[in-house]
Amino acid sequence: MPQSLLEKNAKEVGAYQFINGRWKKPAKKGKIFENRNPSTGELLSVYAETPSDDVDAAARSAQKAFGHWRKVPAPRRGELLLKAMAILARRKEEAAQVETREMGKVLKETRGDVQEAIDTAFYYAGEGRRLFGQTTTSELADKFCMSVRMPVGVCGLITPWNFPMAIPSWKILPALLCGNSVVLKPASDTPDSARLFVEALQQAGIPDGVVNLIYGRGATVGKALMEHPDVRLVSFTGSSQVGGLIGGFCGKAFKKCSLEMGGKNAQIVLEDANMDLAVEGAVWGAFGTSGQRCTATSRVIVHAEVYAEFLERFVRRARGLKVGDGLDPSTDMGPLINARQVRTVEKYVEIGREEDGAKLATGGKKISGGACAAGHFFEPTIFEGRPEMRIAREEIFGPVATVIKARSFEEAMAVLNDSDYGLSGAVYTRDVNRVMRAVADMETGITYINAPTIGAEVHLPFGGVKRTGNGHRESGTSALDIFTEWKSVYIDYSDKLQKAQIDTYEG
Ligand code: UN1
Questions:
Q1: Are residues 110 and 205 in the same domain?
Q2: Active-site hit among 155, 178, 250, 294
Q3: Same domain, 247 and 272
């Protein structure tokens, strides 16, 4: 990338990194990366990777700001979140367009992404007047016991490109509400969305240093952030492979760490299901966001009695989807994020056909003609496969679903649970006993009944089991357990030394 382009862009759009309340000019010596529209190839902006001394400056300014931000009353912190999100709500259409341009999903979905950030602010602003601890009894007379939440400190937040505002909001907003300061490193595919989001927080009057924004690759900038001694907590959403590295490091360094990673989510369709609903659910779950959600439906397990009917209808609907630029209101499905992701999906189609011997029911190819010529478009793809195949076991992160036949509800549940991942799962049935059995036995963090595997709401815990997570949940009150530490408080008003019951117990 010629140096002049960065300069031109920096002049036009201003400087990008946000450190200690200032938009700081990126060092021109560092690695430069382009932000291109995945539908058209158009160059949207050019960024410079944050150099290590600026990562250090960001973490230090967050550490300094933490000292006073933690003392701002939580209801007041909540009000600032509301103010920021009122600004984002006014810029919602612009924000959705920025997102669609840089990551491709259709406008209806990017509006939803921005709305999810706004809803998250509503939720956590209210939490400013709760942040409940416990008051409880004491073993001893004249002694009062309670637990209160403490902020953790500087939080390093590393976010993906598929929900460029919603996922940063799940981390930044509860972190701030709890009294922490943050350094955000968004994915390099969606820097403009992150900038707009942070701008809204700045305009709302978040004090300098409380929110910082840096850019670059995970292996360099993300790593420097995670390793910074002032960073007490790392929250990451992305691949299980990277999450494992982060978790390993944080374990050894005694840092708090929350990981939200991959999925291989399945929808079960039983013989008594409402078939219209089941087909629509699978289409939305598998091809919404071009299959690039961690909650995407990538396996559909169908009872043998309705298998042929379901497959025929699912394939027909997939073939009818209009693939194209997300800015065009008639588009159903946008592009993949970049050329690398297209290669990954192509590789899995190849694996499905050759190695697994799966039957391709529809799709399977990159779309390269006409209006799609310059973009990273891929056909909605459906395989008929078996549970042990790689395409039915590994996360693909693209518009590829594998339909699997099962002879009973029990077999379908066993196939669903036979996975390295455990994020989201769905069952379509009208039998209440099987509904309750699925609720009890599905090994996932999220279980849907007669609804697709995508569509989680912001006030419930979000996350999963097995290789999907490390025991934490984002969203809802459960995120407060990530962004606070518990403190137990004992107040003795007896005016004498009272020993705890263990030291005085006489049977
Ligand atoms: C993701 O899948 O990466 O549940 C996040 C949903 C959205 C969030 C998805 N609310 O589909």
A1: yes
A2: 294
A3: no
What's the confidence (pLDDT) of residue 25?
77
pLDDT at 507: 82
What is d(CA 33, CA 165) in angstroms, rounded to the nearest whole number? 20
Q: Is the CB of 165 under 6 A from ligand 1?
A: no
Residue 136: domain span: 52-261+469-488
Q: Is the CB of 455 under 6 A from ligand 1?
A: yes
Pocket test for ligand 1, best of 118, 120, 163 (most atoms within 8 A of CB): 163
Is residue 163 lining ligand 1, measured as CB closer than 6 Å?
Answer: yes
Is any ligand 1 atom within 6 A of the Cβ of residue 429?
Answer: no
Ranges of the chain with pLDDT below 50: 1-3
Q: Is residue 196 part of a domain?
A: yes
pLDDT for residue 112:
98
Residue 301 included in any domain: yes
Residue 47 lies in a domain: no
- The reply to whether 145 belongs to the active site is no
Do both 74 and 173 map to the same domain? Answer: yes
| CATH number of the domain encompassing residue 60 | 3.40.605.10
**In 3D, which of 434, 261, 396 has the Cα closest to residue 426?**
434
Residue 7 lies in a domain: no
- Is 197 touching ligand 1 by the criterion CB < 6 Å? no
CATH number at residue 361: 3.40.309.10
What three-state secondary structure class fits 499? coil
Non-local CB neighbours of 121 within 8 Å, separated by 6+ positions:
81, 82, 84, 85, 88, 169, 173
Annotated active-site residue in 260, 379, 395, 474: 260
Q: What's the pLDDT score for residue 3?
A: 47
Q: Other C-beta atoms within 10 Å of 148: how many?
A: 14
How many independent structural domains does the chain possess?
A: 2
Ligand 1: residue of 293, 297, 397 to mutate (most ligand atoms within 8 A of CB) is 293
Residue 209: how many CB atoms within 10 A of its CB?
A: 25
Q: Are 473 and 409 in a shared domain? A: no
Strands (E), 52-186: 134-136, 143-151, 154-158, 181-185
pLDDT at residue 10, rounded to an integer: 52
Instruction: Fill in the amino acid letter for 351.
Output: I
Is 260 an active-site residue? Answer: yes
Same domain, 257 and 311: no
